[in-house]
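Lab notebook, design round three. We kept the backbone fixed and only want residue identities now. Task for the bench partner: fill in a sequence for the structure below.
Input structure tokens:
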């Protein structure tokens, strides 16, 4: 999965930034994702990047990992798929943005997840609102 993200992010970075793009390598990708997680843990997602990377009032942990300009560059170029081929794939797939990663994820789960006869699945009802293209059809027996 990391290789797919690196491939598409570097392609988008070169297209967007030309010669000023420095190739994104695995350790830097891990650092970037770590900063995103850190922003979530410390609830810094609503704080502006200038404030987070400020040398006066900012959080020193962000400056210690990478510069603000590099973080913004990676943030703008971060991709899971080939953006130029997306419109064609959108005609046949509802989630072309993440389809390649989703296929990798499901194949990996099939390799390492082995359900046994004593496995239980917990059920929980969650509210969900998402635009659905299809409608449910109920027979007379199940209609309320």
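Proposed sequence:
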């Amino acid at each position: 999965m990391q290789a797919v993200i690196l491939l598409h992010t570097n392609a988008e970075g070169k297209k967007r930034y030309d010669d000023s793009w420095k190739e994104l390598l695995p350790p830097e990708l891990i650092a970037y994702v770590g900063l995103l997680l850190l922003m979530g843990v410390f609830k810094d997602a609503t704080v502006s990047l200038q404030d987070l990377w400020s040398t006066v009032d900012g959080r020193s942990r962000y400056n210690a990992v990478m510069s603000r300009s590099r973080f913004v560059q990676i943030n703008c170029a971060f991709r899971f798929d080939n953006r130029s081929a997306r419109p064609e794939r959108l005609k046949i797939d509802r989630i072309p943005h993440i389809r390649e990663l989703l296929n990798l994820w499901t194949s990996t789960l099939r390799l390492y997840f082995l359900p046994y006869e004593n496995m239980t699945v917990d059920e929980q009802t969650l509210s969900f609102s998402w635009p659905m293209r299809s409608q449910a059809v109920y027979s007379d027996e199940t209609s309320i």
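Keep this in mind before ordering anything: Helices lie at 2-17, 26-41, 49-52, 60-65, 68-77, 86-92, 99-112.
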